[in-house]
Amino acid sequence: MICFAAIAPHPPIIIPGIGRGKNLKRVQKTILAMERLRQDLEKAKPDTIIIVSPHAPPEFDSFGINSREKLKGDLLDFGLAKKFEFSNDLEIAGKIRDSAPDEKISAHFRESALDHGALVPLYYLTKNIKPKIVHLSFTFLDYSVHFRYGKIIGNVSRDDSKKIAIIASGDLSHRLIPGAPAGYSARGKEFDRTIIEHLENRKIKKILALDKALVEEAGECGLRSIIMLLGILSGQRYDFNLLNYEGPFGVGYMVGRMF
Length: 259
Prior knowledge:
The protein is an alpha/beta fold. The chain has helices at residues 21-25, 28-44, 90-99, 116-125, 143-159, 187-200, 204-208, 212-218, 223-233; strands spanning 2-8, 48-52, 63-66, 70-75, 80-87, 107-110, 132-136, 164-169, 241-246, 253-257.
């Protein structure tokens, strides 16, 4: 059963030891929102967290499912001397893989390290709990395929007796201000505003049909994760609760609970 669902950003700078001094203070609202998300997740007592990461190695037309028995990763590239390890829920992972062909979708096992798109949310969300993890990537296929794949994950999760939490990891526009990581575009803020409005109003079809030029100008990395989450939750009731949104460094950080 699905016991929890949320969207979380993954900027390493929100982790103490990577972010420092004034920079860490500039993302305090995001940190507080992640702590609130953690508290809500702990109350849900998940057995397993399924996390979709934009930085898991993507393939053009096949969805990857991390098959390592022990999921390991680190943030050494960002200056944090800490290693992470989680048990993989290979039972749930296998059910997702085996169900995909029924919808003419390709999903396969492969081994990879846990990337920062997974590790930054997990750093906050698993401070006091140790659920198993399922680590998923997305593809470069149409949004509609990601939504359908999300439906598969949702059916597997609802049919299982375990309590399963879903985390869509992703940052919004990387082009909000001059000097932003991907350069500046006036449409960056438009994209972020549009995504939040559509989520709040449950305009799923509008998200699936977003103007490609707007998406391209935004320089985002979270849209496909969000679309997969919407597919996972399709057919059940939920409300989008925006816990925080900010973009102090030119990248949109959104924390929102769905279920």
